[in-house]
Amino acid sequence: MTKKLKGTGVALVTPFHEDGSVDYASLENLVNSVIKGGVDFLVALGTTAETPTLSTDEKQKILSAIIQYADDRLPVVCGIGGSNTQEVINQLENFELRGVTAILSVVPYYNKPSQEGMYQHFKAIAAATNKPIILYNVPGRTGSNMLPATVVRLARDCKNIIAIKEASGNIPQCMELINTAPDNFIVLSGDDNLVLAQMALGMEGIISVMANCCPSEFTEMINLTMINKFDKARKAHYKLLNGVDLLFAEGNPAGVKFALNHKEICKNILRLPLVPVSEATGNKLAEFMNGLEHTA
Predict the structure, then answer these.
(1) Which CATH superfamily is domain 2-226 in?
(2) Which of 29, 75, 210, 294 is deepest in the core (most CB within 10 A)?
């Protein structure tokens, strides 16, 4: 089980039509594109999917569609999290999760729980499902930082908490987490620009945004890192780094949707409060994508 969730995971975007409805044909194109590009697992309904703007019905249909399009070729992870513990438990009980390999659950946002509150939140969620759980620490979005001691406590006390997507961007914190986590616990990066360094320190992969639009190039870098070919991985990293910065320059997934539109995989349409990137950023992203295609 755990071996399936290492390497390159991709946090899939949600394509939309001009009228704002979900574009399932483009979603199928995206799933096929990233699988062809060599990613190791798919993540549905994460931050990059604009999940806060999706209705409950849309979430279930999108998840079911991704499972169908993946067709058992890769594991599918489903994002189910929030700041209301009971509501997260209700979703776990009511969602159709057949075909889902694991759950990705974010640290509660906005209400800023203590470390004990985070522990009790995830302990309750773990008790409500037999699915493996990947914790998600992203203090830049949630306003709360789950410390390594809390993560280790959860990993030891809850047998189905098997991994974390660590997106604090704090290298000393990442090192403490890697060094103190149980042997079979997977630490994944949540930062496309830091993953090379983090894997050199002991992380075992990433849940990536860039892998949506540059799956083969990004996966190549991760694969090289996993076999300790850091000289070649470093070259791949610097080849991609400017593009990573541009993808996030005006927020996620605005940048990656522009890039996917550039590749004719999906339309450059987002739901408010998110909007497309500016013309200036778009021009730079187009230049990066064109350069990447010419050097492929």
Answers:
(1) Aldolase class I (3.20.20.70)
(2) 210
The catalytic position among 59, 165, 257, 284 is 165
Note the pLDDT tens digit of each residue in 193-202: 999 999 999 9
Averaged confidence pLDDT in the chain: 97
Domain coordinates of the chain in residue numbers? 2-226
Please state whether the predicted TM-score (pTM) of the whole model is above 0.85: yes
165 labelled catalytic: yes
Question: Is position 136 annotated as part of the catalytic site?
Answer: yes
